[in-house]
Amino acid sequence: MIAPLSIPSPPLSWQSIPIDLFGLHWDIRTYALIILVGIIICTIWTSRRLTKRGGEPGVVIDFLIWAVVLGLIGARLYHVFTHPHDYFYPGANLWNVFAIWEGGNAIFGSLLGGALGVFIASKQTGVRFLSFADAVAPGLLLAQAIGRLGNYVNHELYGLPTNLPWGLQIESTNTAYPTGLPSGTLFQPLFLYEIIWNVVGVIVLLALEKKLHWRWGKMFAGYLMWYGLGRSYLESIRIDPSEYSFLGIPFNVWAAILAFVLGLVLFIVQSRRHPGLELSVYLPGREWNRSEPAVDSFDTDSDDEDNDEDDASETLESTQADAAATSSAAESR
Question: What are phi and psi of 103, to 5 degrees?
């Protein structure tokens, strides 16, 4: 008997949207559209945050091109290499390796590929790598939450069998359905757990950033720790974990633990190296010169975000200028 509060999987017809255009028939994958929505929201939010910190309006597009392309490639390659038996077997259609619209994109591979893209864009634009990472962190976490809706539509990303009333209904014909389990078995809705975890993470990180003035990569470090902590648990109860393991622990769990440790190390190192305010998001000598305050092309409304930090930054700059003038006058005498 199905629990009354259990979560039904959406109809298979939701996985694509048929479109007839110019005599041609197209099936637009819903998963791809959901990912696109997440990317757009993340881009707009990141642009607003970066521009408020002195970045050139529209510079986020330079990062978007590199990060999205390399992020998608990294996500797919990571998934394929950690689930090789899903793509490489006698009679397999090898073109399915490239069918990212059918799902199967690993976030850790996306982070690696995206980080490479941000590094390349940072060299081109002069924006600090970690300054951009700080700006993108909350938008990235929100985009990942949105993307999990695509997993729900695709009937994927679910955990071990459960008797909890909010268990997820999965059809027994699903290719990932465990052998031997009776039809009607409910599973842990990992996609929902991660959505909740990520949304809560956005709220927590923004609150800490405002209170503690996180810059110099500390916000991104907080993202790595938060996401790594949550994923380390979710991956441990996933029904289709990586086919590789070390010391009995799935590879993806190790990846999540590594993300947490990397975030912790980054936070400690940057806290010691840069205890003060970050006055510019640009590398020395690569600053964007502007004759008037920038208006973000994505945001025409005023916003009070970071006002306290901006005031503190202006005060510090004024103090430094006064000190320099006093020193110069003393030398002239």
Answer: 95, 180
> What is the model's pTM?
0.78
Q: Which amino acid is at 299?
A: D
Tell me what pLDDT residue 301 has.
42
Amino acid at the residue 84 = P
d(CA 111, CA 254): 15
Q: For residue 227, is pLDDT > 50?
A: yes
CA 61 vs CA 107, 121, 193, 323: distances in Å = 21, 9, 31, 38
Q: Distance (Å, rounded) from C-alpha 330 to C-alpha 174? A: 80
DSSP annotation of 294: -
What's the CA dihedral at 115, 120, 122, 124 to 10 degrees? Answer: -170
Q: Where are the beta strands (DSSP E) in 198-253?
A: 245-246, 249-250
CA–CA gap between residue 142 and residue 190 (Å, rounded)? 16
* Cα of 238 vs its chain's centroid, Å: 20
Which candidate, 143, 151, 187, places its Cα nearest to that of 40? 143
Q: Of how many residues is the chain composed?
A: 333
> What average pLDDT does the chain have?
81
Q: What is the pLDDT of residues 134-149, one digit of tens each?
A: 999 999 999 999 999 9
Annotated binding site: 148
